[in-house]
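Sorry to interrupt, but I need a hand with the structure work. Could you write out one complete protein record for me, on any chain you like? Could you add the entry underneath, on a fresh line?
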Amino acid sequence: MQRNSDDETLTDSNVVSLPRRDFLTGVAAVTILANVPFGVMAATQKKVQSHPAGSNFEMTTIKTKDGTEIFYKDWGPKDAIPIMFHHGWPLSADDWDNQLMYFLQKGYRVIAHDRRGHGRSTQTWEGNDMQTYAADVIELTDALNLKGAMHVGHSTGGGEVAHYVARAKPGRVAKAVLISAIPPIMVKSDKNPGGQDIGVFDGLRKALFENRAQFYIDVPSGPFYGYNRPGVKISQGTINNWWRQSMMGSAQAQFDCIKAFSETDFTEDLKRIQVPTLVMHGGDDQIVPYENSAPLAVKLLKNGTLKKYPSFPHGMPTTNAAEINADILAFIRG
């Protein structure tokens, strides 16, 4: 059941058992694959990997000045309006697959990259900070020669968008969208009394260090998608996909990124942004609480628009994709 802005109904179940019917279906699928001749499997794999250069579904990398390889997806006509998507911690470009397909079908060119240290990009042990993330985006947008692009960022990706757009070359950016985003700043301080105590982020680092695999089950099973709320329909596939993406990345880079997303102050970035910017945030965001993020960010923007979704969780681009996609589309077309 999809939640909408007025629906407060969620489920308190944190454990989802796999139905016996689904289990048996999975076993049957594995059995079938086990009996497929190796030559057929190899031919299939070769076909999947054989996207020619310049095709509409090219998947490739660029190498930055410091030698880091940044993986990206670039789908659609190269002369179409580009939309670039920036993922949250500790995920990858795959977290945007729903949006990539949706906007591709609407005629846009869609791009999404794996941030350094995440997904299929180089597992960097240094340079895992917001300044370098934005520098990587500058190199990627230069390599792709993106002009008049729309930049959409979720969570940490929203911070990356703010940091990049504030520094982008003239003509590169037309509009920006910040979804469940971390700006202006997350950590509590004298200047930010409504922020979260540093102990919250120390707890994230401790959980990642001690048992990253379990930690990356607990986050999506609970607060990220609001699956710890009573009445919500839990998607085990969504939890598994979050875990899959997260475990692809570098533990060290993801550890460092906690400091980047919690302690970076985006106040001056937001003040510098000139392009129209849509700030979208869920009222039930348990990761980046609404009160200390979106309303404060939009006040700093010269041309910002705030849209609140009262009952939506942090991961609303996934749990409520239809409404989020439609609102982004309306903003881009407006």
The chain is about 40% helix and 15% strand. The CA atoms of residues 44 and 210 lie 39 Å apart. Strands lie at 57-63, 69-75, 82-86, 109-113, 149-154, 173-179, 277-282, 304-309.
